[in-house]
Amino acid sequence: MIAIESLSKRFPRVTALDRLTVGIEPGVTGLVGANGAGKSTLIKILLGLSPASEGTASVLGMDVATQGGAIRERVGYMPEHDCLPPDVSATEFVVHMARMSGLPATAARERTADTLRHVGLYEERYRPMGGYSTGMKQRVKLAQALVHDPRLVLLDEPTNGLDPVGRDEMLGLIRRVHTDFGISVLVTSHLLGELERTSDHIVVIDGGKLLRSSSTADFTQRTAVLAVEVTDTDEHPDGTAALRAALRKAGLAPHEPADDSAVAPGAGHLVTLDIGSEHGDTEASTASASSVFDTVRDTAADLGLGLVRMEQRRHQISEVFTERSADDVA
Ligand SMILES: Nc1ncnc2c1ncn2[C@@H]1O[C@H](COP(=O)(O)OP(=O)(O)OP(=O)(O)O)[C@@H](O)[C@H]1O
Asked: Which InterPro entries does the entry link to (predicted)?
């Protein structure tokens, strides 16, 4: 989708991109970097809006230096900053953007209605955008990037300014842009870890340089921790505590609730336990993973608890970088 070869961008007092070489494949790719890492600069170069100082880049096989116009016809762009005119409605604005991309009037109106529905804007779409919440504005910005049915969209910080629920909704929408419409996505964020559930691939840049580019699964290797979620019953109103006690009797070593929060943030209703041999020589840690799975299943069944979920935890991307920076310091 995108090929970037030794790309640099120098401003008078700062080097925003420094000999960056990276390839972006079809699917959803997260471009992660701190504020000022060079993400927006890269997107503007890829759209042919700003020239690179050195190096080359192509988008869908087109050269960014000479074919910017053709690239912008086929690529959707959601800018980071607030750029919506306050006095027009979402419908008027998105129809206008569709016409700008070359759609005939009828097709532009139809595609606008479909796209606004897809991003979750209904009756509000006829009201002036000046009165919209940040979440609604971000949805309109996403809709105008999609309205001409591009093959690729570049989304610059689409979760900016949203609360946690709004973020999750936006990330879900972005995932569906790919799964429902087959449109590839390059999405930026300054929050490490935010994009790990949304992206197939993650590219991390720092100070305009490539830090790492790999599949999300490679970032988030499985850990040796098993997380188990069970239901509560009348007999065991706190199913999680009952399971923890019974597992201990069965010779396993579930973590104490306080430890759970350390390995599984926000996971108040999970029992976690080690299944690898990394953690010393207790009976639990030497047991093979499959016998641990069997014991957990049998224990939950004996207690009459419903087994909702039993999964091996994955590392979170932020942990990978915390370890990395600890190594760097060492
Ligand atoms: N037009 C410009 N003139 C001078 N310096 C610029 C210009 N645009 C960006 N920069 C600088 O280039 C560096 C990279 O900026 P860029 O906006 O690409 O970062 P970013 O990763 O997108 O961060 P943010 O999310 O904060 O926008 C920053 O140091 C910024 O100050």
From this structure: AAA+_ATPase (IPR003593), ABC_transporter-like_ATP-bd (IPR003439), P-loop_NTPase (IPR027417)
Are both 231 and 215 inside the same structural domain?
no
User: Which of 9, 14, 82, 154 is the pocket-test mutation for ligand 1 (most atoms within 8 Å of CB)?
Assistant: 14
pLDDT in tens, 182-201: 999 999 998 877 887 889 99
Q: Using CA positions, which residue lies closest to atom 12 of ligand 1?
A: 16
Beta carbon of 39 within 6 Å of any ligand 1 atom: yes
Tens digits of residue pLDDT in 252-299: 888 887 654 444 444 457 888 887 644 444 444 445 677 888 999 999
Instruction: Report the complex ipTM.
Output: 0.93
Pair (257, 121) in one structural domain: no
Q: Is residue 120 part of a domain?
A: yes
197/227 same-domain check: no
225 pairs with which residues across the strands?
274
